[in-house]
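Re-run requested by the PI after the first attempt was lost when the workstation crashed. Everything re-entered from the original request form. Ligand of interest: protoporphyrin IX containing FE.
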Amino acid sequence: PSTPYLKITRSQLKQMSGRKGTDVWMALNGKVYNIEPYKEYHPGGIGELLRGSGKDGTKLFGEVHPWVNYETMLQACLVGVLVEENDVKG
Ligand code: HEM
């Protein structure tokens, strides 16, 4: 299995909301995904999906569909892991 390599802080994640022309990233259970390629396929629609954009969407996700196997679905979209602000170096 491949190890996620990028360490991403909340403030970095916040930059990846899809505004300003960036891709859309979302954290789920400590892992950060680029959901850009997936967003048009989301059965709940883009608007719903984007409620979790640029942040930790774990709670929202779990409220709506805890049974959805996002880890398999988004395997190829894994960007890295969510870390504390002071844990980026090293
Ligand atoms: C439906 C995937 C994030 C809201 C679904 C379904 C899948 C899915 C597979 C169909 C579920 C089913 O019919 O059993 C994902 C993935 C996500 C994600 C992979 C993460 C990247 C979110 C977020 C929200 C959301 C953050 C925000 C609240 C919804 C809603 C539906 C839905 C409302 C229901 C659509 C309907 O049945 O009318 N999603 N979802 N999803 N999703 Fe997501």
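Saved to the shared folder this time. The longest strand covers residues 78-82.
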